[in-house]
Amino acid sequence: MTAPAPLTKQRYFFLILILGSLTALGPFSIDMYLPSFPAIAKDLDTTVERVTLSLSSYFVGLAAGQLLYGPLLDKFGRKTPLYVGLAVYLLASAGCVLCTDINALIAVRFVQAIGSCAAAVASVAMVRDLFPVEENAKVFALLVLVLGASPLLAPTIGGYVTAAFGWHSVFIILGLIAVLILLAVIFTLPDAYVPDHTLSLKPLPIINGFLTVLKEPQFFTYVFAGALAFAGLFVYVAGAPLVFMGIYHLDQKVFGWIFAGLSIGFIGASQVNSLLLNRFTSQQIVPVVLIAQLIFGVIFVVIALNGWFGLTGVLVMLFLILCCVGLIGPNTSALSLAPFTRNAGSASALMGALQLGLGSIMTMLVGFFHASTAIPLAAIMAGTSALAAIIYFIGIRFVKEPVKATEGAVVMH
């Protein structure tokens, strides 16, 4: 691969816009339909808890796609797998519109996730292809800002669209967004990567690479602790429609605004983390935040069990836990990848798959609870926080000489 050519400001902005759109397609596909859960449940003659499983299947698809697209993008180039992924996403979006059964929606959402994952993985790979190495961290930071816009905008838009036109319209809009992205990729996005057709796609070499990564104590300690702590975000996303619209009977529009407001805690904490790293290391931040998240989780359970403070208490505790998640994610991700050079790609893919896989399992647990209070949500959040702390404090004993995360590095999945 040749060195990227210098970019004009206009070209730089345009590339960021396209890559940002690719990065945001998955999060928009998650957040935009959340306000539609009650409407979907009513229309498909099921429960909101059952609709939650369509979110779980989407996370499972994202986890599988992390492992699928990495080798394909390296062997066949960036754009061909991206075309296929976006085409799959479009077909699945149309399938979501046509679904008349909740089981069909759960299955089609899995396929939709497989398609959208191509966009996310390709956007990260193409940053390295299209921009000078010294610009990569800055570009990733800009893409993170685009990701941050998703939980702020998508649920609010979804709430108004669902109220005005019904839940099917959300998937129509997502399909139209994918069409625009596909056209931009075909006609304007360059492909600076030269495919390596010698790469093997046989399962055994790929699996051996992942096993090599898993044997590193620093990786499995931080990746599992981080993934379980980060599962709090997935549990919140899955449980929010049930709690806010099902228990507290808020409408779609109000739900969208509350979801956006709580997301500020997660997004703001991730930015505060950059300031904390000026004085503390990631190794110092992680255990403190893990303990704090566990404490908040236990308090949340106590509040939910006793029915204290009502909706206000739920909002405050969710905000505090999401702040902890925002602090944990960047640090555990960076520390998980720090020991690797040659296997960095496999480590990154495996980290994303584990994070999304564990998150999907926890969202399934939310779907199995039928409750009239926030107790199940609080209990699962406290449970994942406890498991994260236990794994960390046991695993860290096996990390003899921890490799520090690169200062200022930005990690995305």
From TrEMBL:
Naturally occurring in which organism (per UniProt): Mucilaginibacter galii
Major facilitator superfamily (MFS) profile domain boundaries: 15-400
Bilayer topology term: Multi-pass membrane protein
Domain of life: Bacteria
Keyword Transport carried by entry: yes
Classification via NCBIfam families: efflux_Bcr_CflA (TIGR00710)
GO CC annotation terms, alphabetical: plasma membrane
Family assignment from sequence similarity: Belongs to the major facilitator superfamily. Bcr/CmlA family.
Protein location: Cell membrane
Keywords: Cell membrane, Membrane, Transmembrane, Transmembrane helix, Transport
GO molecular function: sodium:proton antiporter activity; xenobiotic transmembrane transporter activity
Record protein name field: Bcr/CflA family drug resistance efflux transporter
Gene3D superfamilies per record: Multidrug resistance protein D
InterPro entries: Efflux_drug-R_Bcr/CmlA, MFS, MFS_dom, MFS_trans_sf
Transmembrane segments: 12-30, 50-70, 82-104, 110-127, 139-161, 167-189, 219-248, 254-276, 288-309, 315-337, 349-369, 375-394
GO biological process: xenobiotic detoxification by transmembrane export across the plasma membrane
